[in-house]
Automatic annotation (TrEMBL):
<feature type="transmembrane region" description="Helical">
    <location>
        <begin position="7"/>
        <end position="30"/>
    </location>
</feature>
<keyword id="KW-0997">Cell inner membrane</keyword>
<keyword id="KW-0472">Membrane</keyword>
<dbReference type="Pfam" id="PF07963">
    <property type="entry name" value="N_methyl"/>
</dbReference>
<dbReference type="GO" id="GO:0005886">
    <property type="term" value="C:plasma membrane"/>
</dbReference>
<feature type="domain" description="General secretion pathway GspH">
    <location>
        <begin position="42"/>
        <end position="160"/>
    </location>
</feature>
<keyword id="KW-1133">Transmembrane helix</keyword>
<keyword id="KW-1003">Cell membrane</keyword>
<dbReference type="InterPro" id="IPR022346">
    <property type="entry name" value="T2SS_GspH"/>
</dbReference>
<dbReference type="Pfam" id="PF12019">
    <property type="entry name" value="GspH"/>
</dbReference>
<keyword id="KW-0812">Transmembrane</keyword>
<dbReference type="InterPro" id="IPR012902">
    <property type="entry name" value="N_methyl_site"/>
</dbReference>
<dbReference type="GO" id="GO:0015627">
    <property type="term" value="C:type II protein secretion system complex"/>
</dbReference>
<dbReference type="GO" id="GO:0015628">
    <property type="term" value="P:protein secretion by the type II secretion system"/>
</dbReference>
<keyword id="KW-0488">Methylation</keyword>
<protein>
    <recommendedName>
        <fullName>Type II secretion system protein H</fullName>
    </recommendedName>
</protein>
<dbReference type="InterPro" id="IPR045584">
    <property type="entry name" value="Pilin-like"/>
</dbReference>
Length: 172
């Protein structure tokens, strides 16, 4: 008599192999997803930087870009260089030149809030795009970090162009 189907032993061996393969692949998948978070947010920052540069050219006025922290009294203010705690990147017309987004100043763009596992720092407090599209001052670099992943840098050159590069440093 011929039987079709699986025996209990064959089923248990198949499930055991599936669990082993899943155990091997799951950590790699988590690392891939975490790495993609930093690169996706870097692309998002790059879009905002290109927008700020284009607005400076189109409106023929200075555009300020900085990492911001919410200040309940004064609105949003730019973080000091190399300071953690940024909530997002903002692009605004800083008519008072105080690096604070005041009520009378116009916010042009703001990035999405940072995901919980992502940290963002900048080596300068802010950068400004001049009406000809150049960035005032030296290079500015934003460093995006996800724990145990390579650091992703978004750099603004004095020419006003922005680029993304993956660093060899591993984030803590």
């Amino acid at each position: 008599m011929k039987r079709s189907g699986f025996t209990l032993l064959e089923l248990l061996i198949g499930i055991a192999l599936g669990v082993i393969l899943l155990g091997i692949g799951a950590p790699s998948l988590v690392n891939l997803l975490n790495s993609n978070i930093a690169h996706q947010y870097a692309q998002h920052l790059l879009q905002h930087l290109n927008y700020a540069r284009q607005q400076a050219i189109d409106n023929q006025q200075l555009m300020t870009v900085c990492l911001a922290v919410s200040d309940n009294n004064n609105g949003e203010s730019c973080l000091d260089a190399n300071t953690a705690g940024a909530s997002r990147l903002i692009v605004f017309i800083d008519s008072s030149s105080d690096q604070i987004l005041n009520a009378n100043e116009q916010l042009l763009a703001a990035s999405d809030p940072l995901p919980n596992n992502l940290t963002l720092n900048g080596n300068r407090q802010f950068t400004q795009f001049s009406p000809d599209g150049t960035a005032i001052g030296t290079h500015m670099t934003f460093q995006l970090c996800v724990s145990q992943q390579p650091m992703v840098n978004v750099t603004i050159s004095p020419s006003g162009r922005s680029s993304i590069a993956t660093d060899s440093l591993i984030c803590p």
